[in-house]
Amino acid sequence: MKASVFIDGEYAGEVENPKEFVENIRRMRREGKIPPYVNIAYHEHLNEVRILTSAGRAVRPLIVVENGVPKLTKEILEKVKKGELTFSDLVKNGIIEYLDAEEEENAYIAVRPEEVTKEHTHLEIDPAVIFGFSAQFVPYPEFNRGDRVNYGAKMGDQSIGIFSTNFQNRVDSKSNILVYPQKPLVQAYIHKIFDATENYPNGTNVVIAVATYEGYNIEDAIVINKSSIERGMFWTYMYRTYEAEEKRYLGGQEDIIGIPQPGIRGYAGEDEYKHLPEDGIVNPETEVI
């Protein structure tokens, strides 16, 4: 029975043996004959083969399992630890491959090596990899609902810490830096693997009391200790990059970056320009506030 083939949502034709066709495409991907980010799936109930090559799809790495045996063996792991093989080498040799949401519909993934059977097609690199990077920083996710873990991951993406250690040498249009970052008292599993909180702490440890306080904390309102704020809790620096350009206009007019002369419209007074040199550009490390 022929099956329709769609490439990135567009009809491309039909194939006689869809299962064999899909297996051949996967074999070619594992042999490195086609890019590793090309995914393919056969939906038997729709009799459709879907091939996806578009950019921006979420894909995740999984260990390939053949005949109930994971292709990532202890010998290969030892070579990775010694630096003889890299992660890219594992992908090129078909030991690890990337699957998107479409192809996962055809996969049977084991969470742990001892759970692998002949029916399984893939094995998780680690159970923690099921989560995204942000979700792994949520403490105790196994004791919470999935939607709350997802909500916590989104909050982690929006949090302020130190996003880069060279932030003072960067020219981002806008960035925020936490002044007094702290090592978290409650750590997730990834903190032990990532080992970044020792040298690059993020966040602030706060003591929270859930209690009524004369009606001030109705709905989402909170009462914050004043001395905690004065000691630096939640202090941040915001960096902005501004651009100025000297332009020349028709008629001979041109822009000049410098200190305006008294009498010019918009002159703010001598005291306002006391930190500026003659070129009108403030010197580095000059306090201007």
- Report the structural category: alpha+beta
List segments where confidence is low: pLDDT < 50 over at least 5 consecutive residues.
Answer: none
The CATH topology of the largest domain is what? Hypothetical Protein Ta0175, Chain: A, domain 2
How would you sum up the global shape? extended
Report the C-alpha radius of gyration, rounded: 29 Å
Count of the separate structural domains? 2
Protein architecture, described:
This protein has 289 residues and is an alpha+beta fold. It folds into two domains: 3-130, Hypothetical Protein Ta0175, Chain: A, domain 2; 161-240, no CATH class. The protein is 19% helix and 17% strand. The chain is built from seven helices and eleven strands. The chain has helices at 18-30, 74-82, 87-92, 101-104, 146-158, 189-194, 226-230, and strands at 3-7, 10-15, 39-43, 48-52, 59-66, 69-70, 96-100, 109-110, 122-123, 174-178, 236-240. The strands form three sheets. Strands 5, 6, 7, 8 and 9 form a five-stranded mixed sheet that branches. Strands 2-1-4-3 form a four-stranded mixed sheet. It has a two-stranded antiparallel ribbon with strand order 10-11. A hairpin with a 2-residue loop joins strand 1 (3-7) and strand 2. The protein is extended and about 85 Å long. The termini are far apart. The model has no long low-confidence stretch (mean pLDDT 88).
